[in-house]
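Dear U.,

For the methods section draft, I wanted the exact inputs and outputs in one place so we can describe them consistently. I've listed the two proteins in the order they'll appear in the manuscript figures. Please don't edit the token lines directly; just add comments below if something needs changing.

First protein:
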Amino acid sequence: MTGSQILARLFRDSIRPYASRLASSLFFMIIIALSTGATAWLLDPAIDKIFLDKDESMLLLIPIAIILTLLIKSVATYIQIVLLNGVSQNIIADTQIKLFKKIINADLSWLHKIHSAKIISNFLYDVTLLQDAVSSSLANGVKDLLTLICLLGVMYYQDWQLATIAIIAFPLVGVLTRRLGKRVKKASTETQEETGVLASILSENLDGTRIVKAYQQEEKEIEKLSNSVWRRVQKILKGANARGAASPFAEFLAGFGIAGTLYYAGLRGLQGELPLNEFVSFLGAMMLAFQPLKRLASINTTLQEGFAAAIRVFGLLDQESLINEKKDARDLSLNKTNIDLHEVTLSYEGQTNSALKKINLNIPHGKTTALVGPSGSGKSSILNLIPRFYDPDSGELKINGQNIKDLTISSVRSVIALVSQEPILFDMSIKENILYSRPDSTEEEIISAAKSAAADSFIAQLPNGYDTVIGENGYSLSGGQKQRVSIARAFLKNAPILLLDEATSSLDTESESLVQEAIKKLMKDRTTLVIAHRLSTIINADQIIVLDDGKIVESGTHEELLSKNGVYKKLYEREF
């Protein structure tokens, strides 16, 4: 994207909602610029009336005028800063909310390709750079430009020839800042990439601390992180050095204009062609113009950093979703919950072999269907298709005879409860974690669900009972306790379709027997799909589907499959 395209989109998406506040800010910027120009102009009558004409009445009036001018400028500057701070922080908030909406609704296939730490880095670091570009660069750049124009107006009013000589260095400053801006943009992009790498290393080490310690890899991880830190430092310095060069080199180039102006003014002064009062006013305006000129030279570098960040933010926001609702999508009509897969094929990006190959499968209403097979056989792929976490490359998946691609995603997922092999809990209370599946539930329903999942007994022993905050991903709970809270969440939803990814794998023997009994009750009159890693948990399933290399190779009851002397029997004998 070009700079003009980025600016156009920034205005459309981020700036336009706050146009009225920015218009007010622009009004006060104009006042600031006019006040600065008036301060320089007042030097003319100060020299002329006080020092040359000896007018005593002006001895008081001109200082008062200067004080009032500076007061107006100060008040306008404060109001302008307050307005811009509000706009910039709102822009950050709006952009972060948009990003989170995009991330939370993104396809799992896309999310799984990107490290979560890199997304967090974009979410926090890039949005801040974007805000700096809008507030510090664009807004303050407009203020400095207006101020510079007013001061140039004073300079041309006093002496157009001197003013023309004074601005001779402006084109050189423009060329310099453009070149430095390109360097800063490149360095900013490289810095953000390395920031993502650094965040990934840190995140992985926080999650994998036990493994790092167990295999004594502390020094290796320290070295890996240190290398990333120093690479990032070098890229930050590269950008910082380019930004730092803008102001001093602009000052140096502007010196040619100042030197030329003083030389020419001196020649005219010696010849008596330049009145002292006009020269002093001109000189004051020129020196005051020096500061906004330096800031304008630096603004382009900051703006380029913001442009680089905007490209990354827009890249996330523009990520196309593969799981989309049709415009005429309708809600799922449910009197039965039979699920049918017809000629379903599924491939994951980056893999040459299909995960599922022309699968035909009927999951009957109110029955329990178990999926078994070696790792990578396609069990999880079938389960992930039902709530539309993925869509098949070809074929159809129907619930109660309705193709789920013709239905609203919310109506499909509202009738499904999921318990995964690795329980996912949030850093909040146990009550809130259970409520996550049905937030309008009563206290009695929460407790009933916990009892059904054999969780109430251990919850009652916690310091704050159901109000106990359990830490990141349930850190304060054992594996079995976390799974029981997760199962309680599924009980509370009371959905007609139940997806179980070996829900008892993390439980001890005593808890497993309790939960198995509870799950049997939960399965009653519900359409249940179970991924089985231990065959002992699905012996009583109504039908067992055996998968291998993305294909259905066997199906039947436990007894039927054992009598076939095929893949299932080999898996069974290997386990027992």
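Second protein (the one for the lower panel):
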Amino acid sequence: MAGLAATFGSGAMTNSIDELEYTGCILAIGTNTTENHPVIGAKVKRATRRGTKLIVIDPREIDLVKYADIWLRQNPGTDVAVFNGLMNVIINEGLYAKDYVKDRTEGFDALKKMVEKYTPEKVEKISGIPAEDLKKAARMYAGAKSASIIYAMGITQHITGTDNVKSTANLSMLCGNVGIEGGGVNPLRGQNNVQGACDMGALPNVYPAYQQVANEDIRKKFEAFWKAQLSPKPGLTIMEMMDAAGKGTIKAIYVMGENPMLSDPDLHHVKKELQKLDLMIVQDLFLTETAQLADVVLPVVSFAEKDGTFTNTERRVQRVRKALESPGEAKTDWEIICGIADKMGYAMKYASAKEIFEEVAKVTPSYAGISYERLEKGGIQWPCPTPEHQGTKFLHKDKFSRGLGLFSAIEYIEPNELPDKQYPFLLSTGRVLYHYHTGTMTTRTKGLTERYPESLVEINPADADKLKINEGQKVKVTSRRGTVEAKATITKKSAPGLIFMNFHFADAAVNLLTNPALDPIGKIPEYKVCAVKLEAA
């Protein structure tokens, strides 16, 4: 989220996982925590038993609702309006942290003016949340000594994803919850080393530690270190790459540990664009749906067959140690990358993952004090600027990295695609407990597939009655982009008019349906809201 980088850095948790157990209040929005992050979900449940208040904001009746003090069931895609409504109540009732706002933030007057019109009554019309429930939740959050916001892709995967994230920051700063123990804005990252990959510069606009590609001084530092000339121009995001492939401005794509033929929206379009490439290389553990389209497949080793580090969602850098010998010709990712670089005329000579990490510490200020020797004793949370530093439990303690925390006055914008006569239902997508992302590993695992063998379409009983659909019956779900068939499961988890599908299974690839409309800043597609029609197959 480039626009948020100045205040909240990297999309990492500002605080630590363990702090969730001892905070006064947790606001969970856009996160099905118990299924997507079960370890963190267990801590949230434990916290409620200790007396922590829990506010759940979610269109579905997820497992956490059972533990919530209040559940706000918003219409999908209305999160900005909900946040503005909460802040309207907190400001009007004088519940905000006045000294914190005065001393540590800027932009409050513009925020106040913006949220004035988002009365609880107006927000009820937009979001469906009863005005009195909104007031109760606002008082609960503002009244806590410390309050933590946790969110996941239910917040980011919208055309307003950046606005949603900024809204979490607005609410947290308004109540003085950033820079304190048990507080903060805490995104729960989608995979085990997403944070580490981002920290190492696997984003199109930054070098390691979020140092900007466009900054000349930073670029010169890396050019001197790597003895190479580097482009001053930020690269493309995944969705921009697909479009560029279709237009012929990108001739080759190198895919590592990613399966866009199941995870990207509007899969018909993705396949068409990928097939226009002159060359596609896929580096993966299995012959995924994407690898089946590749010109070259490079076999890599699994996490259990390599040394290195992973950095988790709370910024904790941890050692990964090789436990098994790798089969066949499989190599580690870094060995393959070095081999290709050598063949292309750039000598990338490393003897081990440890040697690479030593270089990381030299060019990455937040990792500067971390070493394999120190990691032998346990994980360390960045920033850790010196070998004597103990790591950082929570960020922004005395001041923000930009100086003052910046409030953003944000207007609510509707989702890109809403139901109409032809497509009367809203489809949302996500994960289930037993499977992981595109199922590359989990759908090949016998025990997990026995527990959850196929994709299901969650339908509210009222809708099932109207359409004469029974439990376990095959249904057809159609959007403007495609059709999939899967079995129905009748449940009150989803509200009337809303259906839910997971994206783990290739034989019911829900991303044939999803909308590729992008957030203009974060360039993330609107996976969470798209209009569909539903019928018995």
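Candidate sentences for the figure legend, describing the second protein: Confidence is low (pLDDT under 50) at residues 1-9. Residues 79-92 form the longest helix (14 residues).

Thanks,
Y.
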